[in-house]
Amino acid sequence: MSEHNQHAQHKEQGEHDQEHHIVSPVIYGSILLALLIFTGLTVWMSFIDLGEWHIAAGLTLFWNPVVALAIACTKMTLVVLFFMHVKYTTKLTKLTVASGFFVFIVLIGMTMTDYFTRAWGRW
Amino acid sequence: MSAATIVSLPDQSTARVPKMNFLTRENGLLSWLLTGDHKRIATLYLISITFFFFIGGSLAGLIRLELLTPQTSLMAADTYNKVFTMHGVIMVFLFLVPSVPATIGNFVIPLMVGARDLALPKINLLSWYLYVIAGCMVIYTMAAGGVDTGWTFTSPLSTHYLNTHVISTGLAIFVAGFSSIFTGLNFIVTIHKMRAPGMTWLRLPLFVWSNYAASILMVLGTPVLAITLVLVVLERTVHIGVFDPAYGGDPILFQHLFWFYSHPAVYIMILPGMGVISEVVSTFSRKRVFGYTAVAFSSVAIAVFGFFVWAHHMFIMGISNYAALVFSLLTMLVAVPSAIKIFNWAFTLYKGSITFETPMLYAFGFMGLFTIGGMTGVFLGSTGTDIHLTETYFIVAHFHFVMVGGMLMAFLSGIHFWWPKWTGRMYPEKISQFAAVVTFIGFNFTFFPQFILGTLGMPRRYAAYPPEFQALNVFSTAGATILGIGYLLPILYLTWSLKYGAVAGNNPWQATGLEWQIQSPPLTENFPVIPIVDHEAYDYEWLERQQEKEVASVG
Amino acid sequence: MSDSTATASGAVAEAHHEHPPYQRHHFESVDQQFDATNFAMWLFLLTEIMFFGGLFTAYLIMRNWYYPAFVEASHQLNIGWGTANTGVLIVSSFTMAMGVWSAEMRKKGMLILFLSLTWILGMAFLGIKSIEYHEKWVKHHVPGLHWSDSSFLNPASDPEVYKEYHDKPLAPDMAEKTGMYFFLYFAMTGMHALHMIIGISLLTFMIFRARQGAYTTGHVTYVENFGLYWHFVDIVWIFLFPLLYLISRY
């Protein structure tokens, strides 16, 4: 029974080092700067017409929303990885975050399969 | 010949239920209302769920009484709409969703993983309070006049064309949803982080795997229902128009968001039941579950695939044909893991030493009825047949086969299986076997005719129907009466057993599993010492060695 | 080992092994408690992602269907306030992360400072939001409650916005879809603001407890987990900002 305790404590030490990696304020500061720059960038780009890409007949991709979402996703990634410590955390947490995004994308994406294809009419 | 039972009870002349257990540890109302003990919370849930089951069941009785005659004889059509809506709302959200997870799961999962409690006991208690609040709100709705939209709240009927209590029901389900989320969240954290030393993932009982998969669905799916209900409430109060074509909205959007949860919800309801069946089939065939890994991963597969198929509830609602095609194909895929489980249980039975105690009777019922229900689900998943069968009694029969023939039987199986662990007493075997058989017979008489009615074209949710359908409806109602008796009996004899049942001892079923190695009922802290696990799940050889080592002692 | 009666006496000896006062009895160690509660908070954030997901789905569909209305309606939002709010929240995320760092480094004074700064920035966000909401009310852009299409049927009637964007008048059926935009605006920013209010309330409680030294003795769980919640609310705004304010300003 006491061996079990000691064994558990040993495990604790090892995990302790991994779990409680303390992120330095320098990193936090750099991320803050990056986020503010990206914010300025996205505002600036909203005033510029970035044009479109005609993929196929009736299917056009407009670059402005793509760029805006790309910048937003980048900002989100920085917040998740550094402010929320996910870069320094366990595989389980990383998997949890990924699965959340995955189901979110499924909700939006598969709902859109209905809306996008309605215009295609019947068979 | 062989023993007709595997039950092994301590000597009844000297056996006593242990004086110190989680039920006797503290006394007084507050010790129950402010408890953090997962076993007490499970007991609170069991009482509340049973209460709502009987309300929902009475409503079912009213439905069947009305449907004895082709005309609306017992109640007005509007009232009938309210009756089946409340029946659906109560049975789905206040009974089926929390049934196995919040009662049996709450009780047994910490024991099965070797923990002292769930990870978040206060959240567990909060979950029960949210359930009770939701229940009160539903009772208020019923008293105030009910809601008649159908439990699916299909828009634009629910958002624009009815003046019944949609808002209070919507808010009640919102609250119940969070109750469910917190239960699922607790299970996931517990199973990941609080397993005893040596309890690896592949040594966990399959009940834990099933509840884990169901919990993933609860955590990821239920919030979408929550926001959908918020939108419905806003639509009805402020008339914002997101579901109203006149304002540019889309009623189908409501359905996409609603079914995004409600399809995974059916897996939330059935997966824990499948977990029970794994435990029961193994114990009463004295054999490890065939293909443990396949069954474990099939639970997770059902959970994952369950997110991709929701629009098969919407084939006739106006979604595009191309989307219908995609969802139909994916629906075929999701049937596979469920079938894998049935095959594996069947192979577990093969060459096992099968006995027919009550939990096993219910399990057999499950396997047969769920198979039928599941196969009819495949018929419905195919767009071509669905167009004719949906919104008829075929669908009603399909989901009652899987939910009542399947899930409710699994719930009763689990209740009987873990009853001795929970209360320290055995239920009376003969009358419970009788009740199980009565339930099975009553169920088939009630719901099998409904498949025929559906293919003949009788629509669902109709108080009146063409006279040529009457014979089958009368048959169905007769079956429902028998079914009602079958459900009433357990309440009576289980209550009786609390005082007069035989003392069960630690392990009356001679089952493997950590919960059977401790006293019945368990101590509040579950294990005096956290066990170290060194054997696989369903290891009956290990159990034999344990029993040889054990000093013979009472209960 | 598993027989309850044989090891009862052993159990009594076990029960008094060392653990910090903030460790709950069902956990075997502080680390297990930290791990479990941290994981639980992440799972809760998953539910929040899916909760907002429904609103984003509705937004995506309506924006695709009524793009001209969405463009002109979004011009009614003041980009200055919106950008300011984004900046405020990003800085508040920084101060919150620094608060977690202070708790981990057991620096009580700094923890209180950073929590208070986060609180102030959170209030600033809500303050700016209420200025914006008030402006919407005054201009009759609150659908269902205080609504008028006139800024969209005749954009010139709103000189402040017109001189920036020179919007074309919308046809009546498209002009009424601006109501859909504003509904989604209020629903999404309102839901977000509700989460901010909850966050600020919890922050108030935390500042009070931090002053009592609750988080600087090694028990950083509460601060760390709250930090996760706060960053999540920031991330929601990081998406709301371009989707609502930056649809097309050229």
Question: Could you estimate the helical fraction of the residues of chain C in percent?
Answer: over 70%
What would CATH call the architecture of chain C?
A: Up-down Bundle
What is the CATH first-level class name of chain B?
Answer: Mainly Alpha
**Number of helical segments of chain B?**
16
Terminal Cα separation of chain C, in Å?
75 Å
Listing every helix as H and every strand as E from the N terminus to the C terminus, the arrangement of chain B reads HHHHHHHHHHHHHHHH
CATH class of chain C: Mainly Alpha
Rg of chain B computed from alpha carbons, rounded to a whole number of angstroms: 23 Å
| Molecular shape of chain C | elongated
Summing up helix and strand content along with how strands pair, one would put the structural category of chain B as mainly alpha
Helicity level of chain B: 55-70%
**Contiguous helical run count of chain C:** 10
| Sheet with most strands of chain B | none
Major pleated sheet of chain C? 2 strands, antiparallel
Shape of chain B: globular
How are the strands ordered across the major sheet of chain C?
1-2
Poorly predicted residue ranges of chain B: none
Order of helices and strands of chain C: HHHHHEEHHHHH
The name CATH uses for the topology of chain C is Four Helix Bundle (Hemerythrin (Met), subunit A)
Description:
The complex is a heterotrimer of chains A (123), B (555) and C (250). By secondary structure, chain A is mainly α. Chain A has two domains: 23-88; 89-123. Chain A has four helices and two strands. In chain A, strand 1 (52-56) and strand 2 form a beta hairpin. Chain A is flat and about 60 Å long. The N and C termini of chain A lie far apart (70 Å). Chain B has helices at 29-33, 38-66, 77-113, 121-144, 157-161, 166-193, 206-238, 251-285, 292-305, 321-349, 358-381, 383-389, 393-423, 429-456, 470-500, 540-549. In chain B, helix 2 runs antiparallel to helix 3 (77-113). Chain C starts with 7 loop residues before the first helix and ends in a 5-residue tail after the last helix. In chain C, 74% of the residues lie in helices and 2% in strands. A two-stranded antiparallel sheet of chain C has the order 1-2. With 250 residues, chain C is mainly alpha-helical. At the A-C interface, helix 1, helix 2, helix 3 and helix 4 of A face helix 1, helix 2, helix 4 and helix 10 of C.
